[in-house]
Amino acid sequence: MRKIFFLLNIVCVFTSFTFTKVIAQSLPVGTPVLDDYYRRQQLLGKIDSNVSFTIRPLFSAALKVNDVFDPDSSFRKDSYTKTGPFTFGKGKGLIQILPLNWQQQFNSDHPYGWNDGAMIPAKGYQTMISGGVFFKYGPLSIQLRPEFVYAANPKFNGFASGHSDQDLINYYNYYNIYIDWPERYGNGPFSKAFWGQSNIRLTFGPASIGLSNENIWWGPGIRNSLIMSNNAPGFKHITINTVRPINTYIGAFEGQIIAGRLDASGFSPLNETTLSNGSNIYIPKSDHWRYFTGFNLNYHPKWVPGLTLGLIRTFDAYWKDVTGFSGYLPFFVPYQKQNTNDGDPFPRDQYTSLYARWLFTKAQAEIYFEYGLNDNSYNYRDFIGSPEHSRAYIFGLRKMIQLNGYTNQHILFSAEITQLSQTPDRLVRDAGGWYIHGGVIHGHTNQGQILGAGTGSGGNLQSVDVSWISGLKKLGVGFERLEHNVDFARVAFPDINGNSRKWVDFAFALNGEWSYKNLIFNAKLQEIKSLNYEWVLKDYDPTQYYIPHNDVFNFHTELGVTYRF
After folding, report:
1. Is the peptide bond before 57 cis (omega within 30 degrees of 0)?
2. What residues pair up with 293 in beta bridges, in sequence order?
3. Which domains does the chain carry?
4. What is the DSSP letter of 427?
């Protein structure tokens, strides 16, 4: 690993003295329609196979396009307006108005959905508007793209509805002590402005350094990522990253190193903070912000086309506790606890994941996985004896099938599994749920939303999608099964007659994406049936073998429009 870092540093230093014409324009993570369009284009062999799609946002230099928001130059040929990028300074400078994006969503009964950035988990109507400008001169680029979110955020039947005082105590013992993950953001409408997908960078050749507030996605997953995704709002960070693969004699490399600030939500786990007798069960957390740092490095072997192998490692600690060189730059801290005196010098939450993605352009398919650990083993013997301790994983595949007689139309099949709940190894040694921590009691979150998989701590997801594809156009159906926080349920609600009390959602969705001139539309209509919603049983009788479900129906909709200038 030290050799890989050394190689990357040498290349970055070299390229810093060799300026080439690079437009460091980024495609924000989660950009409707376009984000997945480029990945599909790679399946069709139209984008360099060394672009891993495991370090995002992506950059125009990697995608080899002049404008990431007009990949096929379609709206330049037929548009309402033709403002386009403005160049100056003999081509050294560029100004571009970024697309105006308006996203809306609605939940009829209770919060559902994730990977929506600054939006919050909420019932009712919610909207987010973003737009801005991109400026470049020589190696300097500035992208100003703020976001504004408004959510009606009405009251809904949450965990406190239908649960006993002891259940509330169990809930606070988990969600208040180990993680900052509020059920509802306040008692009324929520509105907030964010820096959004803004950054300022210096880019030299394949390397870039800068300040950013952009969302980051690490790993090969599409529906989820174990450690970094756009499930939470973006956070302020320093970044050193590649903007395109660095080609060497043995293959290509990509990488990113970040150091940033994570903030608390300021909300309690539940709006109800007292028991029926009036006693308080909510202990407010400290308002100290957290120092977050990590790296993501991957390698594309020259001799195995389409294969990506990657490593992610992150550290999260309260700023007031961080000391010493290894506190600020802990990348070489040993994995084995026996080499660190059985722990860290101060409370610090660590995550590690290994991932692989294999692209088969001839078959127009890909397969990928990510395997992560949230608790280091004591030594090699400990790991070999219990490799599944504290593990989580994501596994997925995609396949494009060309329609007979239509060269530009395909059927896309996608499937992905996310498994975050603990294994039976917990019976010997409890690893704690993913994204929670006893020392860093805000957990792996920013402003109350999980940085990794939107399914949440202890959540398991199975999803399947089938879609018709034609360029930027997409029509399809999707099915997913979500099992909510299994780790919490096992502690709070012991097995009943040999059967766990599980809260499981079954969701069916219709998805659509369409482009017309400057406009891009995206829509989703989804029906969700929740069994044992919030782990509430209907007509519970301990002598009964079968306990009726507490079924709840929820209708989730998304509607968005993007106007490209």
Report:
1. yes
2. 259, 315
3. 2-88+165-175+201-525 (2.40.160)
4. G
Confidence of residue 512 (pLDDT cuts 50, 70, 90): very high
End-to-end CA distance of the chain: 44
What's the mean pLDDT in 11-18? 37
Asked if the model's pLDDT at residue 9 lies above 70, the reply is no
Structural contact between residues 310 and 368, judged by C-beta atoms closer than 8 angstroms: no
From start to end of 51-185, where are the E strands?
Answer: 55-56, 58-59, 86-88, 93-107, 124-137, 140-144, 147-151
Say if residue 8's pLDDT is above 60.
no
* Chain position carrying tokens 């990506």: 308
CB-count exposure of residue 225 (10 Å: 0-12, 13-18, 19+): buried
> Helix and strand tally (H, E) in the chain?
8, 28
Predicted confidence (pLDDT) per residue in 150-166, tens digit? 999 999 999 998 888 99
| pLDDT mean across residues, the chain | 90
Gap between the Cα atoms of 149 and 376, Å rounded: 38
CA proximity to 460, closest of 423, 494, 425: 423
User: What tokens does 281 get?
Assistant: 């069960």
Structure tokens at 72: 């096929």
Per-position b or e across 10-44, b if 16+ CB within 10 A of its CB: ebbeebeeeeeebbbbbbbbbbbbbbbbbbbebbe
Q: Which of 295, 138, 259, 257 is nearest to 205 (CA)?
A: 138
What pTM was estimated for this model as a whole?
0.92
Q: Tell me the backbone φ, ψ of residue 60, rounded to 5 degrees.
A: -60, -30
438-479 per-position pLDDT tens digit: 889 999 999 999 999 999 999 999 999 999 999 999 999 999
Q: What is the mean pLDDT of residues 29-58?
A: 96
Residue 325 and residue 299 in contact, taking contact as beta carbons nearer than 8 Å: no
CA dist., res. 25 & res. 136, Å (int):
9
In this predicted structure, the answer to whether residue 342 has a pLDDT above a threshold of 80 is no
List the beta bridge partners of residue 373: 352, 391
Helix (H, G, I), strand (E, B) or coil at 433: coil
Task: Tell me the C-alpha distance between 340 and 407, whole Å.
Answer: 58
Q: How far apart are CA 231 and CA 456, in angstroms?
A: 10
- Asked if 93 and 136 count as a contact pair (C-beta separation under 8 A), the reply is yes
Residues 420, 460 contacting (CB under 8 angstroms): yes
Handedness of CA 445, 449, 450, 452 (dihedral sign): negative
Within 10 A of 238 (CB to CB), how many other CB atoms are there? 14
176-192 per-residue burial string, b: 16 or more CB within 10 A, e: under 16: bebbbbbbbbbeeebee
Question: What is the H or E stretch that residue 171 is in?
Answer: helix 165-175
Amino acid at 364: Q
Query: In terms of Cα–Cα distance, which of 19, 12, 63, 85 is closest to 564?
Result: 85
What value does the mean pLDDT take over residues 395-415?
A: 94
Residue whose tokens read 């192998």? 309
Give one DSSP letter per residue of 211-225, joined into a string.
EE----EESS-SS--
* DSSP SS3 for 154: coil
